[in-house]
């Protein structure tokens, strides 16, 4: 493994990369948001690691099997690749403490805002925390960013606008900035690098 340290962008999936549709129980329901391919391609071109970290409790709740989650993630990679964009890794938590499926009924550390997915990425990649960010549409993602020692950027897509209005004012975990969407968040990151 190449051990040159690189900054990473940790991306939430649903509502940040793709349209928020509740539980995506079929690859055909996975729809990329506008500007996402371009945003991730810009990150690739600027030598950022692009890492998805996502809670996927639909597995634990019995809404779909683990195999379907893999298929949806593969569909995400295919759609991005068609536009020349690449993810370096996808990490997910299939657990939930109140799961219907016993094997996934655990209080784990990989369910955000727990830091398990972040630690997996840190083991797999030589990540430089300086210049790394978390981008997501939930206050939970900002909590995760804080727990991992990185700034968070909250996007208005997905649950973002509602959470900014009703949840964020009461949250102790503040984003470094809010952005209209992933492309705007990435533009903000890149402009900060150039100053």
Reconstruct the topology from this structure.
Elements (H helix, E strand, L loop, with lengths): L7 E4 L24 H10 L3 E7 L10 H17 L6 E5 L22 H9 L8 E4 L2 H10 L3 E4 L4 H7 L10 E3 L2 H12 L2
Parallel strand pairs: 1-2, 1-4, 2-3, 4-5, 5-6
Write structural notes for this entry.
This protein is an alpha/beta fold and 195 residues long. The chain has one domain (8-193): Rossmann fold (3-Layer(aba) Sandwich). It is 33% helix and 14% strand. The protein is built from six helices and six strands; from the N terminus they run E-H-E-H-E-H-E-H-E-H-E-H. It has helices spanning 36-45, 66-82, 116-124, 139-148, 160-166, 182-193, and strands at residues 8-11, 49-55, 89-93, 133-136, 152-155, 177-179. A six-stranded parallel sheet has the order 3-2-1-4-5-6, sandwiched between helices. Strand 4 (133-136), helix 4 (139-148) and strand 5 (152-155) form a beta-alpha-beta unit. Helix 1 packs parallel to helix 6. The chain is globular. The two termini are 31 Å apart. The model has no long low-confidence stretch (mean pLDDT 96).
């Amino acid at each position: 493994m190449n051990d040159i340290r690189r900054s990473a962008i940790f991306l939430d999936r649903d509502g940040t990369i793709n349209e928020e549709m509740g539980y995506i129980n079929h690859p055909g329901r996975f729809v990329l948001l506008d500007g996402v391919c371009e945003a991730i391609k810009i990150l690739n071109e600027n030598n950022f690691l692009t890492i998805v970290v996502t809670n996927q409790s639909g597995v634990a709740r019995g809404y779909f099997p683990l195999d379907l989650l893999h298929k949806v993630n593969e569909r995400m990679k295919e759609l991005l690749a068609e536009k020349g964009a690449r993810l370096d890794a996808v990490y997910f938590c299939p657990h939930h403490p109140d799961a219907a499926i016993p094997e996934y009924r655990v209080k784990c550390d990989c369910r955000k805002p727990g830091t398990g997915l972040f630690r997996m990425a840190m083991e797999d990649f030589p990540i430089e925390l300086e210049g790394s960010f978390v981008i997501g549409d939930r206050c939970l993602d900002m909590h995760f960013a804080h727990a991992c020692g990185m700034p968070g950027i909250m996007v208005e897509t997905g649950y973002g606008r509602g959470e900014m209005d009703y949840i964020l004012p009461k949250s102790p975990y503040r984003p470094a900035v809010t952005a209209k969407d992933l492309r705007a968040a990435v533009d903000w990151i890149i402009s900060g690098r150039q100053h």
